[in-house]
Amino acid sequence: MQREMQGVSEKMIKTPICELLGIEYPIFQGGMAWIADANLAAAVSNGGGLGIISAMNADGEWLRAEIKKAKSMTDKPFGVNIMLMSPHVEEVAKIVAEEKVAVVATGAGNPTKYMKDWIAAGIKVVPVVASTAMAKLVARNGAAAVIAEGGESGGHVGEVTTMALVPQVCDAVQIPVIGAGGIADGRGVAAVFMLGACGVQLGTRFLVAEECGVSRTYKDKILKAKDIDTMTTGKRLGHPVRTLKTPFAKEFLKKEFDSSVSDEELEAFGAGSLYAAAVLGDEKKGSFMSGQIAAMVKKEQPAADIIREIFEEAEQVLAGGMKWVK
Predict the structure, then answer these.
(1) Phi, psi at residue 143, to the nearest 5°?
(2) Rounded to the nearest 10 degrees, how much is the dihedral formed by the CA atoms of 108, 110, 111, 112?
């Protein structure tokens, strides 16, 4: 199923994920905490993709308000990303079922406890997975698709790269696979399609969407980033995070390798750092999470233009229209 290019055509890319979710382009916007709100989700959905609201650590009523706001801004399908380590996970799990959002994406844990209720509410469940074992588990429990996210992505990351993970997940399950991690343009889209995926998820690229309300400092750092400007911290705590190299990130890494700093002290040092970056634009206390493709992001533009340009390029690449130089 996965090896047959999932119905990609040379003129207009349509794959089973488009029909499954009722979207024009097979592209998801990543559920980035403190960033992926109703405004960004609605803009991506109106642009033909699947916009996603991040439930992050917020309570149910905050999430309900964002869902209702998104519904007022678009009549297209959109989703909610639920971080399963959230202290409010039980509450938000019920809210998405009550609001009957089109899609629930999950991360940071095993979603099977909640999947039966979501599916009964008519929700398509699409978990983020970092291994074939988790992909098989959620597929057995009724997942509509999975997002295979490689370690090139921003935020919380796994060990396996996108190039290695996507084809293995495609071979392991018989449901659609969305490739994520290290994708910024049409070449990346074409690459994961060739690996067997039938859709993509982008996070970092949408940080510079005009509709994205992340701090101006955050956007500028993405636009100015070079290819080696990300680093990974947090492995000692069991939750590695990819972020831009900043004084805060370097200090965190220094403390991580300091045996005199306890895990509790390290956790406390990092607490609130994403909020400081995304909302406050604080360069000294903020963790500016970013994927390795930050250097490929060159301009701020509407979400709809980002989507259109990416798929125009992908169509050219898949049709053999790439012009190589000697």
Answers:
(1) -60, 140
(2) 180
Q: What is the value of pTM for the model shown?
A: 0.90
Distance of CA 132 to the CA centre of its chain: 18
Token digits for 44?
């991506």
Report the alpha-carbon distance of residue 134 to residue 210 in Å, rounded: 35
Give the tens place of pLDDT for each residue, 306-323.
999 999 999 989 887 555
User: Amino acid identity, residue 202?
Assistant: L
Is the pLDDT at 7 greater than 60? The verdict is no
Question: Tokens 């949408």 label which residue?
Answer: 206
Q: Can you tell me the distance from the alpha carbon of 209 to that of 291, in angstroms, rounded to the nearest whole number? A: 15
Which of 205, 215, 216 minimizes the C-alpha distance to 305? 205
> pLDDT digits over 34-85, tens only?
999 999 999 999 999 999 999 998 888 999 999 999 999 999 999 999 999 8
Going by C-alpha positions, the residue among 111, 120, 29, 117 that lies closest to residue 77 is 29
What single-letter DSSP state applies at residue 289?
Answer: B
Residue type, 46: N
Instruction: Say if residues 179 and 26 touch (Cβ distance below 8 Å).
Output: no
Digit-coded pLDDT (tens) for 283-296: 899 999 999 999 99
Q: How many Å apart are CA 65 and CA 62, to the nearest integer?
A: 5
Q: What are the phi and psi torsion angles at 209 (to 5°)?
A: -65, 140
Other C-beta atoms closer than 10 Å to the C-beta of 247 total 11
**Greatest CA span in the chain, whole angstroms?**
59
pLDDT, residue 4, reads 43
Neighbour-count burial of 12, counting CB atoms closer than 10 A to its CB (0-12 exposed, 13-18 middle, 19+ buried) = exposed
